[in-house]
Amino acid sequence: MPHTIFFAHANGFPSATYGKLFAALEPDFHVEHLEQHGHDPRFPVNDNWSNLVDELIHHLEGRDAPVWGLGHSLGGVLHFHAALRRPDLYRGVVMLDSPVLTLADRIVIRAAKRFGFIDRITPAGRTLGRREEFGDIGEARDYFAGKTLFRRFDPECLDAYVQHGLARQGDSLRLKFNAATEISIYRSVPHRTPGRPQQLQVPLALVRGRHSRVVLPHHARLVKRVPQGEYLSLPGGHMFPLERPQETADLLRTVFGRWDDRQEARA
Q1: I need a labelling partner for 138 at 20 to 30 A (CA). Which of 2, 37, 153, 201 fits?
Q2: What is the CATH number assigned to the segment(s) 3-113+190-266?
Q3: Nearest CA to 74 among 144, 15, 148?
Q4: Where are the domains of the chain?
Q5: pTM of the shown model
Q6: What span, in angstroms and rounded, lies between the C-alpha atoms of 158 and 155?
Q7: What is the pLDDT along the chain (267 residues), one digit of tens a residue?
Q8: Helices 155-164 and 137-145 meet at what angle, rounded to 10?
Q9: Which own/partner contact pairs does 243-250 have at CB distance under 8 Å and 24+ positions apart?
């Protein structure tokens, strides 16, 4: 029976957007996910994302076996924090272009929140006033295809975002991911963590897009100090899982396979 991967998405990108990546991981893995993090009223967005971590832990508890935690951007950080709190729920964690923040990073974030410039150091400022409504699927696809963030998307991933990221409201289509929620997530980016990276009890891999401006060299150095930590990279930018889903799946299969062999050897 294949092991389960529990996937957590990037802010603003419902999990179904990653359908091509999930398909590329089958049948070796069974992929599960929440449709949208941050939209369950039981777990409202709060500072340092602790409620979002609670939401993730809630869905992992009661399972028959630990999972491989896989997350992109926001999702990687949620799995990292959840694994620090509940290592019993995990076989290991892979963060796809998710920064493991240093003390200096966290000091800057705390100051940005306190003095009101958090929108300048996160994508929140670019999200404000963003277009949310479209006449039809074709119009939406053309709009997003012209945006820098989406320009290098695999065509099937762009189609999936347009299909699953929009919902019919009356005579128009609107973004399904609530804009206020997306902005709130950016503004509450953690300046506190449930523990130090060196305390993580399960394997951790940080996979960086080689042209990413989110994960930087000092984040990689911190991951290498984690007892079972490793740093890897793939071509692309911050959105590389949606730009190169097959290459991402191939790398994940290698990482999880290596960890699986190691854990079986110790058993």
Answers
A1: 37
A2: 3.40.50.1820
A3: 15
A4: 3-113+190-266
A5: 0.96
A6: 5
A7: 789 999 999 999 999 999 999 999 999 999 999 999 999 999 999 999 999 999 999 999 988 999 999 999 999 999 999 999 999 999 999 999 999 999 999 999 999 999 999 999 998 877 777 788 999 999 999 999 999 999 999 999 999 999 999 998 888 899 999 999 999 999 999 999 999 999 999 999 999 999 999 999 999 889 988 999 999 999 999 999 999 999 999 999 999 999 998 887 776
A8: 130
A9: 243/152, 243/153, 243/154, 243/157, 243/209, 244/154, 245/18, 245/20, 245/21, 245/24, 245/154, 245/156, 245/157, 246/20, 246/24, 248/21, 248/24, 248/96, 248/207, 249/21, 249/24, 249/25, 250/24
| SS3 at position 122 | coil
